[in-house]
What does this fold into?
Amino acid sequence: MRRIERLFRTLYFAVPAVLWSVTPLQCALADFPVSYLHGNGSKAYPVVSLTWGLLAISFIVIVIVGALLTWGIIAKRARARDIAATPVGRSGGGTQWLIWGTGISTVALFGSLVWTVAVLADINGPPSKPTVTIEITGQQWWWRARYLSDDVSRIVTTANEIHIPAGQPVRIKLIGADVIHSFWVPALTGKTDTIPGQTNTMWLEADKPGIYRGPCTEYCGAQHAHMTAFVVADPPDVFKAWWDGQIAPASAPADEQEARGQVGFVFHCGACHTVRGTEAGGTVAPELTHLMTRKTIAAGTLDNIPSNLAGWIANPQGVKPGTNMPAPGLSGQEVADITAYLETLR
Ligand code: CUA
It folds into this structure.
């Protein structure tokens, strides 16, 4: 009996302490890139309000139940020596607690249910017709993004950094290439799985230009944690310029080293990667025609700077163990040449 009482006392003090420490921490983390406590865009705002609302209801319930529990333990505590003399059964007049308790819980739960369903209905479709449709494929361990268009000359493929026009709804088609992954950009939209053999459709919108981080959120193997998508919301004219830039083929090498690098790249890397305008036409790995427009490499694993790029192509397994990119066995000179060539892919 004492042990149970001690347990309840511990819980009574521990639970609010944990809540009090976690809540300000969550608030402080709200500005972090994967926080779901601040939203951006017409799909995120109702969800963020719902999140805070349900959090508040849950907090109030915990406080009320905790207070009643403490009151029950402290005020109605039987002294140890009286326990043997306490008759089994209950004194009259406790039924109203059950009626009120059940009634209040029902109202709170039903209210939460209605609110949740209303929000789900609200965000089910975009407020206006999406201006862009992007097919995003989750695969171990990166994201392929294909920009669709009725004009086939405008269809382009890129990887991991998904540009969208700010202030406009965008339709996303999600495909799984190998195992199940999940696409989640917390500041913009909830999670949708990418499932092999199935196309899931969703939409998102960012009100403000910015970079919104999206970690893969379904465990998908060794490098699940290094599978980050970035949604880059650009002002519409910047987005259009970006798309036009992506359509262009790669520029030609400007000097001898870059030319050697291009030959080495086509030979060592071209079976898996595409650089449009060259003989490198592989499709199993990220398209690299405009690699230098991306801020990171290896799906958010490293900043896209020359030293990281060289380290990555020299020893991919050392950077991202298990990655499908094999070590190409390059000499130091070849690494330098290919890196110099990749640097031209702007
Ligand atoms: Cu892909 Cu986890």
Observations:
- The CA atoms of residues 41 and 206 lie 4 Å apart.
- The longest helix spans residues 44-75.
